[in-house]
Task: inverse folding
């Protein structure tokens, strides 16, 4: 019996209302760091319980302690980064864009403690979650380095120390997200690959990366040069259009397939998720296919996220049964 | 030597100042305020950002494009022939716009920006530059599902946007900036670009400026000087090659000198500004320079944008003293 169709998620989960309120109160100085941290742990435990109950194979801690995926790290890198002002990304959406103000260096573990806490709550493996070096720099202002290359490579060096801290804590899987990687592929793709290698080379751990929406076609098949075992793409949002790219050039890594749309309130049917999985299995063997949502679930309500994951797991079970695949 | 801006200005300030426009748009989307109320906030914020530019010492200000989501949809939504699709990256920035899709014959119906110009001019103690997205860039950043070729679309847009330029001229705009960053990414289309802009600007008597950003004009120079504009705006930060390129033939127009990096918070020093002005003054006389940021300022937090403008003015005043 073959194996495969492992299930996991891309990282973030919706924050419970009590945590959203507490984060606001903390930013206004009305509650202390300890009180917020205790609520973050409470919410993390709920995220772990939900994933166990749904029956996912590889869990995440849910990023209850994170707001923005770049600003979270920038705040902890306080000796070389500052939190800047709001910049508009589109429509009425703004993000706080950090500023690199000095030579980037690791100041101590940023994610290992929360990972340890989450792993302590479950027997299933929990993934470590990091933002990649290219994205960290691309989504920050840089007032220190003369070139983007120098900033990205120093960022990679410090993230390697974070990876080492996670591996030492016991992480077997680490996902390093690079949603900005297709910003200027012709100019910078080699740099992104070089930086990823600096982060992961020679470290005994299974590395995954998540590449978000955007011009995925521009970096395919180049993305296969990234030194990671698995690459995850948002298939559902583009109705599995990316399969056409894979038909033209074989995908020779593990593929994380997004099968539910995180920007759509509608919960997919089991049949449509099964259909997406079967389409993918025409091109890749099941042991190299992972089934996941399109992106982090933080954009959905708790109920929508849970419902989408249940449908996803049910569809995987159906397809496994049909094809005689062991989970 | 005059100072100006290239277009947009950050829409909201940071704490402790309130993000009034952001809150108003959110309330409008929730149905808590009506469109008139939202327009009133947009007007107030427009006045506020004009005041900030004036306070920084800018000679020729813009309305900050406070009502504009982006350069493309502000026109596409107000013309016939377009629908609006999903988000897409604007060049190599982390800013996204909804992509216009050309689904029918493009047609200008009524003035799009002229009323905005009148409002800004009435509330500004300094001259206000009007802004129009050029036909090539609007076409290149849209998806064409109607016209048989890109040329057909670009030329049709030039014909229609001409109405807008004439409306701005009639409204009394002293300077009309036509924004064409996309040509730098497709230089092979210069003959089409040139034909379109000739068509769009024919008979226009107002002072017109052609602005580009995020690259250099290698391959387009000196032909770009033949276009019917009195000034050409260039980005010397993303396109440092522009310094050398403009020395290869006599620069017969005024130059929009984009030397303040609109995409990074790092504040230029007065010395850097002086050096950059010195680098071009043998090519373009200082009284033919408009000094400005490299592009619109919305890539920066509001406070950083204002600080950059103030520093730019300081650098230019110093240059006026030193260089005469």
Result:
């Amino acid at each position: 019996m073959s194996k495969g169709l492992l299930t996991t998620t891309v990282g973030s989960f919706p924050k419970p209302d009590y945590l959203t309120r507490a984060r606001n109160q903390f930013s206004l100085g009305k509650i202390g760091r300890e009180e917020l941290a205790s609520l973050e742990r409470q919410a993390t435990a709920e995220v772990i319980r939900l994933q166990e109950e749904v029956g996912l194979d590889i869990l995440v801690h849910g990023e209850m302690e994170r707001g923005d995926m770049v600003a979270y790290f920038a705040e902890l890198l306080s000796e070389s980064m500052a939190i800047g002002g709001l910049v508009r990304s589109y429509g009425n959406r703004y993000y706080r864009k950090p500023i690199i103000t000095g030579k980037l260096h690791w100041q101590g573990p940023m994610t290992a403690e929360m990972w340890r806490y989450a792993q302590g709550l479950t027997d299933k493996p929990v993934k470590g979650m990091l933002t990649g070096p290219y994205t960290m720099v691309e989504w920050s202002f840089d007032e220190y380095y003369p070139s983007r290359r120098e900033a990205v490579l120093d960022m990679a060096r410090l993230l390697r120390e974070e990876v080492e801290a996670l591996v030492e804590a016991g992480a077997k899987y680490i996902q390093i997200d690079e949603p900005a990687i297709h910003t200027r592929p012709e100019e910078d793709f080699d740099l992104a690959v070089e930086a990823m290698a600096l982060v992961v080379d020679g470290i005994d751990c299974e590395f995954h990366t998540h590449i978000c929406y955007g011009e995925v076609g521009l970096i395919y098949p180049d993305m296969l040069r990234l030194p990671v075992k698995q690459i995850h793409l948002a298939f559902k949002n583009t109705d599995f259009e990316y399969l056409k790219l894979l038909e033209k050039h074989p995908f020779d890594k593990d593929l994380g397939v997004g099968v539910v749309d995180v920007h759509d309130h509608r919960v997919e049917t089991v049949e449509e998720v099964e259909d997406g999985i079967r389409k993918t299995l025409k091109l890749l063997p099941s042991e190299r296919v992972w089934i996941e949502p399109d992106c982090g679930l933080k954009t959905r309500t708790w109920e929508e996220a849970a419902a989408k994951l249940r449908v996803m797991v049910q569809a995987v079970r159906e397809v496994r049964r049909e094809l005689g695949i062991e989970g | 030597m005059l100072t100006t801006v290239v277009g947009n200005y950050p829409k909201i300030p940071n704490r402790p100042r309130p993000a009034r426009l952001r809150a108003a748009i959110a309330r409008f989307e929730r149905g808590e305020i009506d469109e008139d109320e939202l327009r009133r906030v947009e007007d107030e914020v427009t006045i506020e950002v004009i005041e900030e530019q004036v306070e920084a010492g800018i000679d020729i200000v813009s309305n900050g494009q406070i009502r504009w989501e982006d350069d493309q949809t502000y026109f596409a939504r107000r013309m016939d022939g377009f629908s609006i699709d999903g988000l897409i990256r604007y060049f190599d920035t982390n800013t996204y716009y909804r992509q216009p899709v050309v689904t029918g014959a493009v047609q200008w119906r009524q003035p799009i920006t002229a009323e905005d110009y009148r409002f800004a001019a009435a509330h500004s103690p300094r001259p206000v530059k009007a802004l129009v997205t050029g036909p090539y860039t609007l076409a290149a950043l849209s998806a064409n599902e109607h016209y048989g070729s890109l040329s057909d679309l670009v030329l049709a847009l030039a014909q229609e946007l001409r109405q807008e330029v004439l409306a701005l001229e009639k409204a009394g705009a002293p300077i009309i900036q036509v924004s064409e960053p996309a040509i730098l990414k497709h230089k092979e289309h210069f003959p089409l670009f040139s034909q379109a802009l000739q068509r769009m600007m024919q008979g226009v008597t107002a002072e017109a400026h052609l602005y580009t950003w995020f690259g250099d004009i290698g391959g387009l120079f000196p032909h770009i000087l033949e276009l019917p504009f009195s000034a050409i705006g260039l980005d010397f930060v993303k396109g440092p090659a522009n310094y050398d390129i403009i020395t290869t033939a006599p620069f017969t127009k005024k130059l929009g000198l984009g030397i303040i990096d609109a995409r990074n918070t790092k504040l230029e020093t007065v010395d850097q500004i002086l050096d950059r002005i010195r680098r071009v003054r043998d090519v373009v006389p200082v009284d033919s320079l408009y000094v400005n940021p490299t592009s619109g300022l919305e890539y920066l937090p509001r406070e950083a944008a204002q600080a950059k403008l103030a520093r730019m003015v300081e650098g230019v005043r110093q240059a006026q003293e030193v260089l005469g």
User: Anything to note?
Assistant: The mean pLDDT of chain A is 96. Chain A has one domain: 6-69+108-323.
